[in-house]
């Protein structure tokens, strides 16, 4: 049976320089994030450029550390914010082979409870995924993800 050493938020911040890739923080536990794969990185780059089409109304932030609740520090792959908002309109999680479904579900719930309106879960290999809102989950089999006025066809990553 494995045990986990609990740390404070202050200890988490002190330990950050020791990590090559910034981990997340979840109720006293340091949660290392999977290393991105090539498809993951390509999708992130594609979405950053796709979101530029919606400026100046929105700003995009890759791997921005957010605090959706006390005792939590999360790092979505990409956030899209209305130009003057602190809470993202949209958080994007690009799945990696090492992602755990239970951790992803918890993040989605935290984002939505914090006030994020849309959470995209994008599969960078199959080029599909899901859009999560407080109203439910919508499957995106055709690769066209929507968040209000924002619409991106992730299948454009192959062009």
What can you tell me about this protein's structure?
The chain is built from three helices and eleven strands. It starts with 8 loop residues before the first helix and ends in a 6-residue tail after the last strand. It has helices spanning 9-15, 38-51, 101-114, and strands at residues 24-26, 29-31, 58-62, 72-73, 78-82, 90-94, 118-123, 128-133, 136-140, 144-147, 150-153. Strand 1 (24-26) and strand 2 form a beta hairpin. The strands form three sheets. The protein has a six-stranded mixed β-sheet, sandwiched between helices. The radius of gyration is 16 Å and the shape is globular.
Q: Which key terms come to mind for this protein?
A:
tt1808, chain A; three-stranded antiparallel β-sheet; 22% helix; 159 residues; 3 helices; alpha+beta; six-stranded mixed β-sheet
Instruction: Tell me which CATH architecture applies here.
Output: Alpha-Beta Complex
Q: Say which CATH homologous superfamily is assigned.
A: tt1808, chain A
* CATH-defined topology: tt1808, chain A
Strand element count: 11
Mean pLDDT: 92
Give the domain tally.
1
What is the CA-CA span between the terminal residues? 47 Å
User: According to CATH, what is the class?
Assistant: Alpha Beta
- The general outline is globular
Point out poorly predicted stretches: none
Radius of gyration (CA) equals 16 Å
Helix amount? 10-25%
Number of helical regions: 3
The major beta sheet can be summarized as: 6 strands, mixed
Structural class of the secondary structure composition?
Answer: alpha+beta
């Amino acid at each position: 049976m494995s045990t986990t050493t609990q740390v404070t938020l202050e200890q988490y911040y002190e330990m950050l320089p020791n990590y090559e890739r910034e981990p997340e923080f979840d109720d006293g536990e340091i949660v290392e994030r999977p290393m991105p794969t090539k498809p993951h990185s390509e999708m992130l780059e594609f979405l950053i450029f796709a979101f530029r089409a919606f400026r100046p109304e929105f700003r995009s932030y890759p791997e921005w550390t957010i605090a959706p609740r006390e005792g939590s520090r999360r790092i979505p792959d990409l956030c899209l914010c209305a130009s003057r908002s602190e809470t993202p309109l949209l958080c994007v999680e690009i799945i990696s082979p090492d992602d755990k479904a239970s951790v992803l579900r918890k993040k989605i719930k935290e984002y939505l409870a914090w006030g994020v309106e849309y959470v995209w879960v994008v599969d960078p290999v199959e080029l599909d995924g899901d859009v999560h809102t407080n109203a439910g989950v919508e499957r995106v089999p055709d690769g066209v993800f929507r968040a209000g006025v924002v619409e991106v066809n992730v299948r454009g990553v192959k062009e």
